[in-house]
């Protein structure tokens, strides 16, 4: 039941305004919180900046959800809150990458038993792939944790994680509208409103960062929305590779390159897609714009590619992977030769 009976459009505006206001307050009192990002050799910024924006994202989203009454069950907020607080702790006292992966896999197990589960992974060569309970749970936990990590990894430029997240969420808002699915429609727009309020202050030159609390919260929420859409059969599991294409592609390419170079897969470096594009264009807004457009293109492909056999989508994704990998490898070599 809604705490306040107001139209969805008005609620969305209120969430955006609340997100913006909370971020302003966090900027104003930044020195009172142990959540400051101090520039280092990997940073794209040059001044100390608060990384508390995730608090505003999470809080404004919660207020919108509780006040709107458009969601029947709020149990999914328990694992979401757990992931947020793990990210918040990590912002104050950095955790190892392995521990963060484990701590985001745990709430994924909870999600699985709440009904946000996947056992059917599509049709390949005319045969439907159905996983056993144990393997489905293991794969689901790994996939959710991996995606949360992938969105966290692209949060390296002003506005990038926000713009990419908006580009990912847009087609799901459309699905909610198309299929008259109030849960999908309202929760997606509520999350987008929170992001917009933050992005107004996160655009280059950024006055505040979302931190790990924000990127992990967004990654987990997007994962929930994607899984929900798959369960409802609005999309197939394989099409999610395109609908969340930029973070997934970036992580897969970086991990492969590190493996081939004999480097630890969790070792921090500057070989992500946004680093290499920025090295070429020398403009943060332009780099964010390019990756945002790329995600919109991926989303369009994932939303519009209707086939009976998922092998075609998988092959197309593999070809895109090889193409992007080759282009980024050439770009990286050219950059190193000019340094």
Automatic annotation (TrEMBL):
InterPro entries: Glycosyl_transferase_4, PNAcMuramoyl-5peptid_Trfase_CS. GO terms for cellular component: plasma membrane. It comes from the Bacteria. It is found in: Cell membrane. This is UDP-N-acetylmuramyl pentapeptide phosphotransferase/UDP-N-acetylglucosamine-1-phosphate transferase. It holds the Pfam family Glycos_transf_4. Its cofactor is Mg(2+). GO terms for molecular function: metal ion binding; phosphotransferase activity, for other substituted phosphate groups.
């Amino acid at each position: 039941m809604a705490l306040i009976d107001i139209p969805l459009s008005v609620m969305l505006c209120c969430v955006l305004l609340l997100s913006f206001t909370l971020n302003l307050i966090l900027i104003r009192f930044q020195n009172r919180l142990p959540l400051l990002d101090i520039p280092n050799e990997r940073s794209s910024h040059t001044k100390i900046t608060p990384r508390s924006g995730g608090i505003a994202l999470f809080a404004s989203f919660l207020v919108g959800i509780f006040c709107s009454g458009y969601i029947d069950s709020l149990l999914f907020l328990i694992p979401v809150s757990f992931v947020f607080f793990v990210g918040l702790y990590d912002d104050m006292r950095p955790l190892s990458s392995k521990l963060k992966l484990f701590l985001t896999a745990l709430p994924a197990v909870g999600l699985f038993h709440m009904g946000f589960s996947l056992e059917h992974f599509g049709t390949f060569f005319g045969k439907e792939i159905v996983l056993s309970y144990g393997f489905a749970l293991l794969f689901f936990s790994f996939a959710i944790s991996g995606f949360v990590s992938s969105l966290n990894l692209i949060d390296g430029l002003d506005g990038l994680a926000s713009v990419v997240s908006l580009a990912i969420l847009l087609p799901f808002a459309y699905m909610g509208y198309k299929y008259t699915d109030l849960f999908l429609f309202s929760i997606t727009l509520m999350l987008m409103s929170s992001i917009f309020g933050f992005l107004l202050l996160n655009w280059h030159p950024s006055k505040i960062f979302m931190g790990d609390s924000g990127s992990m919260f967004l990654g987990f929420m997007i994962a929930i929305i994607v899984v929900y859409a798959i369960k409802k059969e609005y999309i197939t599991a394989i099409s999610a590779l395109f609908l969340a294409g930029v973070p997934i592609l970036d992580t897969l390419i970086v991990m492969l390159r590190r493996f081939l170079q004999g480097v630890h897969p969790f070792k921090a470096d500057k070989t992500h897609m946004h680093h290499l594009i920025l090295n070429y264009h020398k403009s943060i807004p332009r780099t964010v714009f390019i990756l945002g457009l790329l995600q919109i293109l991926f989303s369009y492909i994932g939303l519009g590619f209707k086939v009976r056999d998922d092998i075609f989508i998988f092959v197309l994704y593999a070809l895109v992977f090889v193409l992007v990998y080759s282009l980024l490898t050439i770009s990286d070599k050219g950059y190193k030769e000019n340094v």
